[in-house]
Amino acid sequence: MNHEDSVLLHTEGRVRHITLNRPRALNALNHAMVLRMGEALDAAEQDPSVVAVLLTGAGERGLCAGGDIRSIRDDALAGGRTSLDFWRDEYRLNARIARFPKPYVALMDGIVMGGGVGVSAHGSLRIVTERSRIAMPETGIGFVPDVGGTYLLGAAPGELGLHLALTGDTAGAADALLCGLADHFVASGDLPALLTALDTCGTPEAVVATAGRYAGTASAGELAAHREWIDACYAADTVEEIVERLDGYGVPAAKQAAATILAKSPTALKVTLTAVRRARRLNSLEAALDQEYRVSSTAFTGPDLVEGVRAQIIDKDRNPRWSPAELAGVTDEDVARHFAPLGDGELGLGPAAGTAD
């Protein structure tokens, strides 16, 4: 499949449709897809006949399962740098979506993970359904939430975003709305009618109004009921303290969260905690993406990303051998190294002073 086949473009009425089209790979993003999406947004912005952009995913399983992490692992093993080039353009696309001047409607139906969140949750109209399963599961593969994920999760109420970041847990429709990752719930059965209605819209204002008109109420989620222990436990200063609080809180769901966290990469956990808390203090998505690029560039050269992808995706033994294997083995210096400036290699989206100490 060439890059034009993996991202399909067409216009219905005055709405430009972008369809991620790798259904056998759950529409996982590669570099060519990112570049084609960027070109499509440039063309849509400059075309006065286009009033909105609509993002969907081909197939029945979901919008996008994330980046092509098999290729990233292969690149890391070969000592390459193509993944850094991919992230550079992907993060620029994430920022482009957030600043797109026309309505950017993302149908976050089915599975939406990692890079899939990056091309949808920064949009201006984000629609979830009862089938939506949204997650940033990076700590489970020895990586750290990126594509603006630390910025999004850092902005969630209380400590809900940090809970999702460390555990990699999945958010359904109601939880995504609560955490600010989505704007409207639309029942999956109503999506065809919504799409038809959007295609008849002649103005940006009509697109916004139409999306709101089809919005309904999502079934109750889980996070709202768990706010008390989530906010209390994840307010601790360190991952070790968070796990200790969770394990001793006396609530089964909290104890399960502790066990979930302890199965993740210790290095990724500590870097994620710092990244989300620093993102909360940054003044823009662009500054957070700059920070994430530093983190991703360092994580790319470490042992845990390669090992995590092996265990979860390649061999599927679900038994990663992290290095270090314990939280106590990850030093403050190890964490700080992920946030060190890259010199000429910086992403450079935000202001030069876009740091959070």
From TrEMBL:
Catalytic activity of the protein: 3-hydroxy-2-methylpropanoyl-CoA + H2O = 3-hydroxy-2-methylpropanoate + CoA + H(+)
Pfam families found in the cross-reference section: ECH_2
EC top class, as a word: hydrolase
Signal peptide: none
Enzyme Commission code: 3.1.2.4
Top-level division of the source organism's lineage: Bacteria
Protein name as catalogued: 3-hydroxyisobutyryl-CoA hydrolase
Provenance organism: Streptomyces poriferorum
Lineage, highest ranks first: Bacteria, Bacillati, Actinomycetota, Actinomycetes, Kitasatosporales
